[in-house]
């Protein structure tokens, strides 16, 4: 393990020249910060759009041979403003001219992924000039298959390309190459994944993820006012929390760090002295029973009843296959002896509801089938719950006190997560009551 640190700066951290200067001083504050990953500039205020969104719009308009000057001018102005304010020589104007020419004359020769990736590419170019650092392009260096799995050859190539431990490197986030050599982006927010991959490939001791909040909170502050911050959360806990709605980091960025036990520190570019949240290996001991509460609305439950279902081998598999074939993935599937429930995302289910129900009716011949909408799932997560007698009793007691009807209960054998399903109108109240019970 080297003593280098990867620092990924998100969209708000590179939104303007002032933010660029903050980054410089953060890097000067610790010489181990040697590998920098940048997103595309984000919003400076709530009325603005992220440059990535403007790039996608420009591409869409150009493809339709429509005037793309609206979004394009905003992109151009932002990059030029940053370079001017930082007094850089930069070839950014030429690069922008070149891209504009292609959008205007040959939009079919480029892909949406390519155009979107220019947000990070140009930002990294400016950042490397500003910092006097080496620019390393993510294309074709970061290579992944259709499941976004990085090839082992790519890990070796990255380690080699960034092997000088005394150098400062800047790498654009969000994109790489597929195995056929096409430029491909990750899913949205994917610069986080780039940071994780570089931390793994270069065996860094730490991955700092710089954003505009000082880490994660134990619950959504829009629901729980003054929610406490989380100092430490394990890789497993954060997966459970992210899956259930808490998002500060792209969940796919955790795997490459977890594979090498590299801690991730969520830090605030606007308040760098704050400790932030550390995401790391499972702690041996913890004094807190719960680490966090997260949840999401917009779930539906497909309820299927059939007598003697328990004797019918393959019943569950067949139902899940019908859903799978229509592109519906499921969240939970609590079952009774003669009933099966599948909890799925409402929007996805409703798109294919008629076909799904017809096929289940025809193949499974249930006695009863019904869809319940407007459900919310809430996950209460924490290693502290393991072997802690009475945790579930406290949780359900807190919900009962508020007269909240629990529609679904799920606790995995890992015991680090209790999921409850409630009616959407009880969502906020349920989170507040669980928080007050365990955190106070
Ligand atoms: N710029 C990309 C997005 O807006 C990727 C990122 O910021 O991580 O999704």
CATH architecture classification of the largest domain: 3-Layer(aba) Sandwich
Helix coverage percent of residues? 25-40%
Task: Tell me the distance between the termini.
Answer: 40 Å
What letter string, H or E per element, gives the SSE order? EHEHHHHEEHEEEHEEHHEEEHEEHEHEEH
Query: What is the overall silhouette?
Result: globular
Structural class: alpha/beta
Structure, described:
The chain has 440 residues and is α/β, with parallel strands linked by helices. It folds into 2 domains: 5-212, Carbamate kinase (3-Layer(aba) Sandwich); 292-438, VC0802-like (2-Layer Sandwich), CATH 3.30.2130.10. Helix content is 37%, strand content 22%. The protein contains 13 helices and 17 strands. It has helices at residues 17-28, 51-63, 69-85, 92-105, 112-131, 152-161, 191-201, 235-243, 254-258, 315-325, 346-364, 391-401, 427-438, and strands at 5-9, 33-38, 134-135, 143-144, 169-172, 175-178, 183-185, 206-211, 232-234, 264-268, 277-280, 292-305, 330-332, 339-345, 368-381, 406-411, 417-423. The protein has an 8-stranded mixed beta sheet, sandwiched between helices. It has a 6-stranded antiparallel beta sheet with strand order 13-14-12-15-17-16. Strand 13 (330-332) and strand 14 form a beta hairpin. The chain is globular, with a radius of gyration of 24 Å. It starts with a strand and ends with a helix. The mean pLDDT is 94. The site of aspartic acid (ASP) has 14 residues, from helix 7.
